[in-house]
Design goal:
- The protein is α+β, with helices and mostly antiparallel strands.
- Helices cover 41% and strands 23% of the residues.
- It is built from 10 helices and 10 strands.
- The protein has helices at residues 90-100, 120-133, 140-157, 159-165, 176-183, 190-196, 201-212, 216-234, 239-242, 251-262, and strands at 2-7, 15-21, 26-32, 35-42, 44-49, 52-56, 61-64, 68-75, 81-88, 113-115.
- The strands form 2 sheets. Strands 1-2-9-4-7-10 form a 6-stranded antiparallel β-sheet.
- Helix 3 crosses helix 4.
- It is globular and about 60 Å long.
- 24% of the residues are buried.
- Keywords: DNA-binding, Transcription, Transcription regulation.
Length: 270
Amino acid sequence: MMLQNGYHKSLHSPKLLRNFYLGKNVAGEAFVSDHIFSYIMSGTHEVWVGDRKYFFGKGDYRFFKRNQLTRFVKSTQSDGFRSIAIHIDQYTLKEMASEHGLKVYGHYQGEGVKLVDANGMLKSFVNSLNIYADNDRLDHDILTLKTKELVLILAELNPVLKHMLFEFSDPGKLDLEAFMNGHYRYNVPLERFAFLTGRSLSGFKRDFARLFNMTPGRWLVKKRLTEAKYLIEQRFARPTEIYMELGFLDLSHFSYAYKKAFGKAPSKRI
């Protein structure tokens, strides 16, 4: 069973989300378009950003920077997975930057996921959210005020968080080879890859062809299958355990592509 409530007025508004899952673990991938602050009340949460893995559990306060591809597994355990989160939109942040003179300089290049060491103010703030999360008709103005309160607490608590919150530039042009080698498992449109590497779609395709001497689609399939072959033959992984992790939509598609590439079914290691 899953319950997810979202409260929002427009695309230029913060959102308060309450997640509650019972039963099977929940897995998937997502593009983080807004900054997200969240608190885990029960269960565990594994998150991959690129090829880096993070593990969070009950009582953890987390911050996710915007414009990231993520993969996740939410483990329900005996009492389910429960979390509460605020999505912090750019409109609200730009309004605050103007009101309070909050400026940062330079492009942030560190990790986009942070475990937050909470102080008394942050703990009290999170406790107050439980009241609002149970209100199915939360007033937009109240949510905006609560979001601004959260931003000011985070900016005061950690200068790194302040830098991430108040940097408004889109992704700069990245090392394409390094980015793709870290993100080939993500099953997202080429337009998303292009945006995250700081390129137009045409520029992304042109640079990709120059670097890899093949189309992005062909390269992604080849890269995923090469990794699958290694995991199956060297790490004795089962096809059912890895096909989704490697970006294939279903097992039959994975098996067909694997057999076409290597002349044998993925269930046969030799």
